[in-house]
Amino acid sequence: MEELEESIRAAVALLRESRRGVALTGAGISTESGIPDFRGPQGLWKQVDAMKVASIEFFQRNPAEHWRFAAERKFTGAAPNAGHRALADLERKGKLRAVITQNVDGLHQQAGSTRVLELHGTTRTSHCLECGMKFQTPDVLERVRRGENPPLCPKCEGLIKSDTVLFGELLPREVLEEAMAECQRADLMLVLGSSLAVHPAAGLPDVVAEHGGHVILINAEATEKDWLAEVVIHGKIGDVLPRITESL
Ligand code: NAD
Predict the structure, then answer these.
(1) Confidence of residue 52 (pLDDT cuts 50, 70, 90)
(2) I want to staple 189 with a disulfide (CB 3.0 to 4.6 A). Which of 126, 179, 201, 208 is the partner?
(3) Residue 72 alpha carbon to ligand 1 centre in Å
């Protein structure tokens, strides 16, 4: 307990000094909103082969099963939690220039963060692979639930795919470049709820550290980059992060 208090004090001290902070978030910040992560103890990988259903190869071979899985996950009702709100608060306090996220759920924007760099795209929108027409994903999921699977474009009958980056696809170049530039400039990075197993996102804390920035890491369990961080807190983001932001 004393150790936790000390780590919180150390994180607050670093944030007070920081002028160009960024956050890197992963699926762990959204588990308290009811969205399972991939690799945590309750993670999706314990239930299905997520690498399979979330890969572009699988989507191309079997789009109907991919969409059926998406429709069953019911991302759409989730609301931001205390962790998302604390990050939006940090931005309002002038402490965060950007939230770089691996998440595709849109909860940072819902919580009020205004500069969110979505490395892996978003589930909120979808597009036709043939003509590029845009759709709101909840509308597409509704069609899938009614049995229209795989969902096709009403204009050209092309296959519809969500705007998430699947395993095997390239990350959006401009977003990645912007994230890189922010990390090179950052004097501090908060890493929240990521096992740091998926590259290139997993390499971003290294970029911050190589450019002289501090790294604070909050995660339920040990990650592959704990060694890199000046402050490591193993705990729930929704418990820990609000305590840090409220002490600023
Ligand atoms: P991950 O599943 O590999 O790791 C999540 C980490 O968060 C785990 O180490 C877990 O212990 C920790 N964690 C879980 N709940 C926590 C909590 N309340 N407080 C603190 N830590 C907590 O996630 P990742 O590193 O983001 O990689 C998974 C990939 O899957 C990403 O590329 C992401 O795009 C995608 N994904 C996104 C969502 C989402 O948008 N919410 C959900 C699942 C997977």
Answers:
(1) confident
(2) 208
(3) 19
Atom of ligand 1 nearest to the CA of 105: 40
Residue 156 CA, ligand 1 centroid: distance in Å: 36
H/E element holding 214? Answer: strand 214-219
Instruction: Judge contact between 37 and 47, C-beta under 8 A.
Output: no
Helix runs in 18-158, H state only: 50-53, 56-61, 63-73, 82-92, 107-111, 137-145
Distance 214 CA to ligand 1 centre (A): 22
Look up residue 242 and give its amino acid.
P
Reported pTM: 0.93
Non-local CB neighbours of 48 within 8 Å, separated by 6+ positions: 69
Count of Cβ atoms closer than 10 Å to residue 9 Cβ = 13
Nearest CA to ligand 1 atom 41: 27
Classify residue 56 as exposed, middle or buried by CB count within 10 Å of its CB (0-12, 13-18, 19+): middle
**Residue list, ligand 1 pocket, CB within 6 Å:** 26-28, 30-32, 35, 37-40, 43, 102-105, 120, 193-195, 197-198, 219-221, 223, 236-238
